[in-house]
Predict the 3D structure of the following.
Amino acid sequence: EVHLVESGGGLVQPGGSLRLSCAASGFTFSMFWMHWVRQAPGKGLVWVSHISSDESDTTYADSVRGRFTISRDNAKNTLYLQMNSLRAEDTAVYYCARNWVPDSWGQGTLVTVSS
Amino acid sequence: DIQMTQSPSSLAASVGDRVTITCRASQSISTYLNWYQQKPGKAPKLLMSAASTLQSGVPSRFRGSGSETDFTLTISSLQPEDCATYFCQQSYSTPPTFGQGTKLEIK
């Protein structure tokens, strides 16, 4: 069974940093593209970033480019999102999701940016 | 970026009703259209990919159709457990974009 578990969320001040992790199990992690998608409270889904299976291709939404960095460790079956220069508008539940068409999602981790 | 527009934004229907949600893309996306169901406090669940391919385990009362710019998700006979928010998403080009969601409630 595919299992994705996000962690690393929390309360951070504007301008601060957080690193999210997504631990994967139940499938061959190294074979799949992975995404980060976020959802602000009461709002819709917004794609943040994705990374190819071999880490050769990474792409970002305009709103986070230059501030967020996606990476992965295929030996550890883990996806990461380094978030710097955080803003209030980055407040959201962050989901990791598997595959070009996201077919499995984690339960999400809440990031709150507030002073 | 390709803009995805869903309608209606919300609707209420009775158990047993036929329900249709529409999704329009701002440019042609062939059939690179996916549908997700999200229940409160839960992660999205992929219902349908490639416009009309039902995912394993999804009830057959869900049907997807459409191509190019216009797509529909139809629930043939609404059940209480279908109460959720439904999102369309295009996977034709990067960035992948989602519709704003349709909140479906049971009368």
Notes: Chain A has a mean pLDDT of 97. The interface with chain B takes residues 35, 44-47, 50, 59, 61, 95, 100-108 of chain A (CB under 8 Å). The CA atoms of residues 51 and 58 of chain A lie 4 Å apart.
